[in-house]
Write a structure and sequence with these properties.
16% helix, alpha+beta, Neuraminidase, 2 domains, globular, five-stranded antiparallel β-sheet, four-stranded antiparallel β-sheet, F-box_dom
């Protein structure tokens, strides 16, 4: 194989280039020398200040050296795979058109990078806790960034608009905004009266779309959250789904807003299949959940869950395991790292995972996959502070990570909760930050920018570049 040793040189306004001398070796390419190139690529994307004086040019022997511009895209992408995270890749790939084009034109590379480097959590959005102290003051969500040490992720947060100023500057909105969903790098919000909805991209510092909800649909959808559907390979498009319930006739229907057409599509009313008998607690909980193209709403009695397949727009009702009906149990539907739907629950300090499995008679059911006590890990990350709490609650599940909040039976606001992340693959717990847990929580996970997924906008490569 070839061994690469790197030195950074200056090459004009578009990029710094790297001189590479090639030597024969039997060592694996994923060695220190390759990591040196990765570090150089990250530094090149980070240190582009005009105040930095360029290094002195050195004479090169054209017979033994070459520039990174002459590297094949396959080698360049192999090097990019060794960058530590998506934030670093974005900064490196946007250094020049050639590097951007290499990433944007390779869906296979993006799939491999996603497998090796899960999209990083940038922070958590918190909805306003209810009525604000000043009735005339509109309420807006707040954002708390993670306290990680990665410089590129911190730079992404600093460069974004996580105060949602594009909404605060919008005239005619008196009731503030409430987050309904947060997916694919977008945040879906509705104003206090749910008459206007907005989709915002904080990293891009802009509001993608404002649109009105349907008058007739709002009557049946009061208390139900809208769901946001996004695509990894088409980041400029999205759909918004609202499910309405006509209790008097036991009917349900979905209404879908499509960003491509800018219009709502109202599906017909249908009877709820396998609907449980009428009884106390039969209504749905207000939260919504999704995994792999399926949307979920849990009945208040916790015995059943309504499911919508967004590919066919068909509804179904599933019976939930009996231990999820425990009033001390919190649970959320989400996705494992491989995209498989899962239910993650917490009872006291025990966290368990359920997966969808087909039993011998051909019926799909939610089956317990694992359950693990977290006392030891909580003592490690929280220390003596753990004694202030007696349980954890599941607040969200995204891409193989579950986000938890510590709690006590009194729910005393004077004892703020610790927010934690748990990797479902390794079951390793990490501490995020401490904050009052008084409203719904929405993780904001960094997504691939449109400029690196196909040829979009001003970043599209030009002929001959």
């Amino acid at each position: 194989m070839k061994k690469f040793s790197c030195s950074v040189l200056n090459c004009g306004k578009h990029a710094n280039w790297v001189s590479i001398s090639k030597k024969r070796t039997n060592r694996d390419p994923g060695t220190t020398e390759i990591s040196h190139f990765c570090t150089a690529a990250a530094v090149m994307a980070r240190d582009r200040s005009p105040t930095n004086s360029p290094p002195a040019k050195r004479r090169k022997d054209s017979s033994t050296t070459t520039t990174v511009a002459s590297l094949g895209e396959d080698i360049l992408l192999e090097i990019f795979l060794r960058l530590p995270c998506l934030a670093t890749l974005v900064r490196a790939a946007l250094t020049c058109r050639g590097w951007r084009r290499a990433v944007a034109s390779s869906p296979a590379f993006r799939r491999r990078f996603r497998q090796l480097h899960p999209a990083p959590l940038l922070g958590l959005f918190f909805n306003p806790p209810g009525a604000v102290q000043e009735p005339g003051l509109p309420a807006f969500p707040s954002f708390v960034p993670t306290r990680g040490t990665d410089r590129d992720q911190a730079a992404a947060v600093r460069g974004g608009d996580f105060f949602l100023t594009s909404l605060q500057e919008r005239p005619g909105v008196l009731n503030g905004w409430d987050i309904h969903d947060c997916r694919g790098g977008y945040v879906l919000l509705a104003n206090g009266g749910q008459e206007t909805m907005a989709v915002v991209n904080p990293l891009a510092r802009r509001s993608e779309r404002f649109f009105d909800s349907l008058d007739g649909h709002r009557v049946y959808a009061v208390g139900h959250r809208a769901c946001l559907l996004c695509s990894d390979e088409d980041p400029t498009a999205f759909r918004v789904v609202i499910v309405a319930h006509d209790k008097s006739r036991d009917l349900v229907r979905a209404t879908v807003f499509c960003s491509d057409t800018g219009e709502w599509s109202v599906r017909p009313w249908v009877h709820i299949p396998g609907k449980p008998r009428r009884g106390r607690g039969e209504g749905w909980m207000s939260c919504n959940m999704q995994a792999k193209g399926f949307l979920y709403w849990v009945y208040k009695n916790r015995k059943y869950m309504l499911t919508l397949d967004t590919a066919t727009m068909d509804f179904s009702v599933d019976e939930l395991p009996i231990f999820l009906q425990n009033r001390f149990c919190s649970f959320v539907v989400g996705e494992m790292k491989n995209g498989e739907p899962c239910i993650v629950y917490a009872i006291n300090f025990i966290v368990g995972v359920l997966l969808r499995r087909t039993e011998n008679h051909g019926v799909d059911r939610w089956v317990l996959d694992r359950a693990e006590p977290l006392e030891t890990q909580l003592c490690r990350v929280l220390g003596k502070v753990m004694l202030d709490y007696n349980k954890v609650k599941v607040v969200a599940v995204r891409d193989g990570f579950v986000y938890l909040a510590t709690s006590d039976d009194l729910n005393d606001s004077r004892t703020p909760s610790w927010f934690l992340s748990l990797c479902l693959e390794t079951m390793i717990l990490e501490k995020l930050f401490q904050r009052t847990y008084d409203s719904s929580v929405h993780p904001y996970v960094m997504q691939w920018p449109p400029s690196l997924v196909g040829n979009y906008g001003r970043f599209a490569p030009e002929d001959g570049t």
